Here is the input.
Amino acid sequence: MTSVRIDLVVFGVEGTTIRPAEVGNDCMRNALVAANVPVTRDAVVEMAGVPKTVAIRRLIERFIGADRATDERVSEIHADFLHRVTDQYRRGAGVEPTPHCEETLVRMKHAGVRVALVAPFGRVVLDALLERLRWRSPGLIDATVSVDEVGRGRPFPDFIMRAMSLTGVRRTDAVAAVGDTPIDLEMGAAADCGLVVGLMNGSHTAAQLRHAPHTHLISHLGVLPRLVIGHGLIPASPRAAATSSA
Here is the structure.
């Protein structure tokens, strides 16, 4: 066990810092159904956190066959999804912070901990979301990263490496990765983050998250400052999971 100061917290977006995650999921499902891909709601939820073009391709392959998952078809469905979700976010439909989110962001900033948001969708969608939430105010968030700004999406560590570069943090063990999906936690482990924290009131159950690499599982974001600001003892590797459901 080693004592590590956390300098940066990297949060996911849908299901982690905003709710409900169903806004993005519904837009994805509607875009696929409109293109004659008869996906189920559960199948779309399973793709939470996966880069959207990758998710669309996998769902096409699953429901109508790999031969139908052409680049052109994926691009068309993705464009429709972007139109739908951007419109929803701009109108504010279903957009609100998750419980204790904003107070946690403020506490991080007051403690001198940098904050980054990473999103599996493009900059246009992310900016619309940030504008609606009024999270562009100076000092609340230090960096945001969209999927079109990195080489690879989750579960690869590119999001976290980009957030570190933007915030000037050099050591991955000084980073906490926080998300509500197994693929979020896999990303944190791939980056060797000091803390890999699963949020149990998001899109996935505690049972699903326990199978992913993590250092802690928490019931809501209000618990997070105790882990981050308290600079408590944490496992040396996120693969050596220690569950806390406080």
